[in-house]
Amino acid sequence: GHSFEVDVWSLGVIMYTLLFGKPPFETSDIKETYRLIRSSTYRFPTIPVVSVAATEMIASMLQVDPLKRPTILQLRAHSFLTNEGIPRSL
Predict the structure, then answer these.
(1) Contact 61, 10 (CB under 8 A)
(2) Contact 23, 45 (CB under 8 A)
(3) Mean pLDDT in residue range 2-11
């Protein structure tokens, strides 16, 4: 099975996709996509411009080593969510 760290990674992929309009590891070749996922190789586009806090949060969630990913409590305390006007709950 998988642990909560996989959920954090998935949230990172979703957040990247919502902010940039495409998934971080998307390619036209599925084997290449899997290689990029395994090595956590991606780039942040320059357009649209997003905050440093947002890219730092995404990068922390997309760590290859699951034990280096933040917990949900750490994410809730991240500056992207606390200092950028994102509501604590909807």
Answers:
(1) no
(2) no
(3) 92
The amino acid that residue 20 corresponds to is: F
Residue owning tokens 């080593």: 65
Residue whose structure tokens are 């699951």: 66
**CA–CA separation, 36 vs 25, rounded Å?**
6
Output the CA–CA distances (angstroms, integers) from residue 27 to 37, 47, 82, 87, in the order listed: 11, 19, 33, 33
- The first and second tokens of residue 59, run together, are 């990068």
Asked whether the whole model's pTM tops 0.90, one would answer no
How far CA 35 is from CA of 9, 25, 44, 49, 52, in Å, comes to 16, 9, 18, 27, 26
Specify the amino acid at residue 73: L
- Residues 32-83 have pLDDT tens digits of 999 999 999 999 999 998 999 999 999 999 999 999 999 999 999 999 988 8
